[in-house]
Design goal:
By secondary structure, this protein is an alpha+beta fold. It has twelve helices and 16 strands.
Length: about 425
């Protein structure tokens, strides 16, 4: 009897579907606007209302960080906090890092205390000091947005305070996030759990991870990100996944503010889970894969193969296979190698497309030294070879004449009376 019961239990366990979320409907997404994108080319795995212009709350501070880093060459440079001036640009409902009046603080510490705990005081302090003109900083934010391609975005302040002219879209925020992830400083700070400024007077904690711990939420798929919440925007969250090779970008905007729940964090983790359960990252190009044979100049080898420095892949349905004949590679870089090129040198980039859709680019590296050939060099430089030969002949003649002269002198010495 016991064996029969065990067999029945095992049957039911094996029959339970492995995918918890069979469809997107099972996710019960609270966000009104959201999208999950591949970071290399922003190809959408799924998106909903991604082109709607909506407030984005403190996600705005990512652009504040970008503009600060673009315009301050030395982030260790310090500014003096004028707290009364700083406080003019936000009210008590916004999160603050706890800057003190007349405090000397570096731009790096301001960026950290803005991104990690979402400090409105740090954001305002950055905007006041970078150009010495708050309005000019806002102009720079909008100019940078256009440069990145955020054509449906407008910034009215560096904080994300509710304003009819402070808005973006899911896709534009993904563009901004992709740009930010190319900056090691921003990427690192968005992943920190806590940070202590130089001197130790302020320690801040990441709002995303602190809230997730407080509410017992699983954020194992999330490497880092930026939270946001205002009355107009609701809960918002821009994150990137913990896949170092090709992280996903997840944007959720317009979540309801629900007592006792954090739907923006729940939505993000559920979306990452859904992708993990239904997609797999497949490499279009493998690290070390030979990309092209480049001709050489003055070498013992006529050509040398160069290789991809990293994997580059796309997320595909688990039952889908890569069609090799649909891969297109366009190389740009050094046309001819010489002995000046050494092993490990980056000689160019390979731009990869799959099924006519651009995937991204990867650095192309040289995996061996280019051996020099004196014979090949001589053939291409006959005039120099001739000059060298004539010079050598001249030197030999001079040496020979001096030698004969010395010999003759010695012979004459025997007949000296």
């Amino acid at each position: 009897m016991r064996k029969r019961i065990l067999l029945i239990l095992m049957f039911f366990i094996l029959c339970i579907p492995k995918n918890i979320f069979a469809t997107f409907e099972d996710l019960n997404i609270n966000a009104k606007y959201y999208g999950v994108y591949m970071s290399n080319n922003l190809d959408a795995l799924y998106e909903s209302n991604s082109d709607q212009k909506v407030p984005i709350a403190s996600i705005t501070k990512i652009m504040t960080a970008i503009v600060c880093i673009d315009n301050i060459q030395d982030l260790s440079q310090t500014v003096k906090v004028n707290l009364a001036e700083v406080q003019k640009y936000y009210n008590d409902e916004y999160s603050v890092a706890g800057l003190r009046d007349s405090q000397e603080i570096s731009y790096y510490d301001l960026i950290a205390t803005m991104l990690i705990p979402s400090g409105a005081d740090s954001a305002a302090c950055i905007a006041i000091n970078v150009f010495g003109d708050y309005s000019k900083f806002i102009e720079a934010m909008n100019e940078k947005a256009k440069e990145i391609g955020m054509n449906s975005t407008s910034f009215a302040n560096p904080i994300g305070a509710d304003d009819p002219n402070n808005y973006s879209t899911v896709y534009d925020v993904a563009l901004m996030m992709k740009y930010a992830l190319d900056n090691d400083i921003i990427k690192d700070l968005m992943s920190r759990y806590k940070y202590t400024i130089k001197g130790g007077s302020i320690t801040v904690h990441n709002a995303l991870f602190v809230l997730a711990n407080l509410y017992g939420l699983d954020v194992s798929k999330i490497a880092g990100g930026k939270t946001g919440m205002t009355g107009d925007a609701g809960y918002c969250l821009a994150t990137y996944s913990n896949n170092e090779e090709n992280p996903l970008i997840c944007i959720v905007l317009g979540c309801d503010i629900i007592s006792g729940r954090l739907p923006h964090i729940e939505d993000s983790q559920n979306l990452y889970n859904y992708v993990d359960e239904n997609y797999v990252l497949k490499n279009i190009i493998q690290k070390g894969e030979k990309i092209i044979a480049l001709p050489t100049y003055h070498s013992t080898k006529s050509s040398i193969q160069v290789s991809a420095s990293n994997n580059i892949g796309i997320y595909m349905n688990k039952d889908e296979n890569i069609e090799e004949d649909k891969i297109t590679i366009e190389y740009s870089g050094i046309d001819i190698l010489s002995s000046d090129n050494k092993k490990g040198d980056i000689v160019g980039k390979a731009h990869i497309s799959y099924k006519d859709k651009y995937i991204g680019c990867v650095d192309i590296v040289l995996e061996e030294d280019v051996p020099f050939s004196i014979l090949s060099w001589s053939k291409d430089n006959l005039q120099y070879v001739l000059i060298i030969e004539i010079s050598l002949m001249g030197i030999i003649i001079i040496i020979y004449r001096k030698y004969r002269s010395n010999v003759n002198k010695k012979k004459l010495g025997y007949f000296k009376i």
